[in-house]
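Look at one such:
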Amino acid sequence: ATHWLDHVKQILAGAVKIADKVENHKTSVVVHCSDGWDRTAQLTSLAMLLLDSHYRTLRGFQVLVEKEWLSFGHKFNHRVGHGDDKHNDPDRSPVFLQFIDCVWQVSQQFPNAFEFNDYFLTTVLDHLYSCLFGTFLFNSDKERRDNKLSTRTQSLWSFINSKRAIFLNPMYCAPLDNKVALFPVASIRYMKFWKSYYCRWNPRMRPQDSVHLRHAQLASLRDQLQVKVDLLERELENKTGREGAGPRRQENHNPSLSARFESINI
């Protein structure tokens, strides 16, 4: 056994301890592992995610990854092995995958606290390995600048922000989450296996339709209905304008078509 969920639980427990020291005890915390770019990045970024609701938004999470992982110097090339066929290389390690799994675990305990959905996390991991974007290539900002990735490749964040709607969590409640620190239960009993990511290609364990797909369908239906509402309102305005020269009609106190459709729970 790999004890994967036990590792995830240990990382999450460390982040919760840091968040507790900062939020409840009002103390400073120094985080440093043996090298400073693996466990350190995991713990600091998770602690910031728990403490600051900004990092639980779609753009805020992108800033968090850029700040605590890419700019901090996590060795993505060595840990992932981009373009390297040495599969037994001891430098390879799923450090960033563990971090994303921890984020998913927290989102399961607090489903209303994250603006992004699990499809966003899956997309980030897919392109961590795909090399279609330059975001996670090389080991440091210096190497990325030396190889001119900003001009030779596209950013993953640009792709995600251009399709923002499909990565949003319909259950997100920003007013309730504003300036609220999260303290998930870091117990092995609360750790879940991320079946929609690890087993999505297994036909025997294929999960049901994801929330993001259903949300996209409802959003599309809403847009279609809105187009019909706008068309009907324009026709009503034109008709009213033509009849304006006649006798003054009694004011209509009925709600507008827009108000009627807004009251419908799609």
Observations:
- The longest helix spans residues 211-242.
